[in-house]
């Protein structure tokens, strides 16, 4: 697959890749989001404490993030297609082996470690290859692909519950594992791009005659701009470091609202059946936010990093206002605002990462970003829980999340200023020196 003039196709077969990535998002992250339905069943089967059983999900999340650099490195050395297919096989193995349910440690190793590694090896290259296939429409393509997470999570809840009631939790795991084998099919559809398409247009050789395809490919393979190894040195680039800090602070906040939303509604005396609908509202507006923001970003009216800073600010505002709710209607409205703006952020934050580091370094940057960002996901919920315990009010957790997001937006502003300063500096350096002599002949004589 080669695009004209070596540029990303920005359409065509790329939309097949987007649909495949949409499916992968649903068969990985959506499964992880709804795995809590198995929690009570597994806890009762092994007669374990809740804290002991919860380590299954904790291991999955940890391996998902820690495996991202490995997945990115394999994408650089092999192909995205190979890594996604491998991830599908690992995800299936984790669920299929979990079917035997020997003991709780066995569950850690199968539905925890293997499933987490499968999700990492599927999710990371799927979201990466979409960015390689698109340039002008990258934001829209990433938004559509990420929407698979919301669409599948909305339907997986009742479906998984039905599977458990019909086949037991072990049988449900085996069936879900079989469904996850479709990740391999999606991976097979992720056709690798030619080397030149993996680079920015400025790095591509556009002067090679069209008829000389073989020599062009040889030249591309020997091009010094192609990175065949994982680039750990990105941590020395100020732009990447600033964006990684933003990622840590944002991750600290993003895991808090879903954690405390239900307890907050209970504290307000809202009925359990109405509380469950809040999660459905969250999923629906999240999906709408992703698609709408992807469409708007595709218009290129606003710079993506500016758009991200705006959505982060709006999320923090909605989180600061959410604790003011005192009944179901007001809580549902503020939840809707939070879910919508969260969706807009998820839709474009990967696109901004690609803009910050450039496509030649994107695979390495995505793996490192996921790894570094995971620290925020691990620290945020316990810290918020501590603040809630001290304050004795679930509202304190939302205030903490909002304040942290405001701080993260500050790093986006600093990053944007740094990029603008470097851009101005490069323009000054490349500006030709003006001669003070009005006549070229006199200028030549002067230098002689």
TrEMBL record:
- Residue span(s) of domain Major facilitator superfamily (MFS) profile: 14-420
Q: What is its main location?
A: membrane
Which portions of the sequence form the region Disordered? Answer: 205-224
Q: PROSITE patterns from the xrefs?
A: MFS
Where does it live in the cell? Membrane
Instruction: Cite the Gene3D superfamilies for this sequence.
Output: MFS general substrate transporter like domains
Which GO molecular-function terms appear in the entry? monocarboxylic acid transmembrane transporter activity
Q: Which UniProt keywords apply?
A: Membrane, Transmembrane, Transmembrane helix
Q: Which InterPro entries match?
A: MFS (IPR011701), MFS_dom (IPR020846), MFS_trans_sf (IPR036259), Proton-linked_MCT (IPR050327)
This protein's membrane topology, according to the annotation, is: Multi-pass membrane protein
What does the entry list under GO cellular component? membrane
In terms of PANTHER family, this protein maps to: MAJOR FACILITATOR SUPERFAMILY (MFS) PROFILE DOMAIN-CONTAINING PROTEIN, MONOCARBOXYLATE TRANSPORTER
Q: What is this protein called?
A: MOT2 protein
